[in-house]
Amino acid sequence: MGKREDNREERRQAILAAARSLFAERGFHAAGMAEIAARSGVTPANLYRYFPSKSAIVCAIADAQREQVARAVTDAQAAPDARSALARLLTHFIRAEAGDPDQGRLWLEILVETARNPEVRRAVEADDAAVKAGFLAVLRRGIAEGGMRADLDLDATVVWLIALLDGAVGRMAIEPEFDLARATDAFIALSLRALAPLETRP
After folding, report:
1. pLDDT digits (tens, 9 = 90+) for 46-85
2. pTM tops 0.70, yes or no
3. Cα gap 156→97, rounded to integer Å
């Protein structure tokens, strides 16, 4: 990559960082393109060369999160067993989404926009598919290893795990003083116990 391409990517990342910050602070609709341009240090005209709309910016944010998901899944799969892999994956999402107040507020904004903006919905669906695939791979591995119930409805289980994680983001927005580190251990322990074969439960 040449210097010109490097500079272009740096400006693009600066725009995305500014947008993330403003969306978290003020909400998707209250943050204007001119504000995003000013905070990122580019002119409004230059901003539109990178992103033609706020929806395009949100889609780029979702794409970046999908790359983070891929890395988290790869790291989880490197665990010695599926139960450890699931613990790693749950920990990643709790810390990345609920544990970071700005990221949590940003994710809530994106979820709301998903319900009314088809362009954003398509980008978030791609991100969601990557998350589901990661959890499905871990659960299937757990069943194969004998560490998880063989009668699991895998699709339903994955949806509920993701819903609980999304709920944690909302909870931290309401109760930011909550001890998330302690709660993370409790949530993982409950999840692993619920998924364990019945005959192995204490």
Report:
1. 999 999 999 999 889 888 888 888 888 899 999 999 999 9
2. yes
3. 22
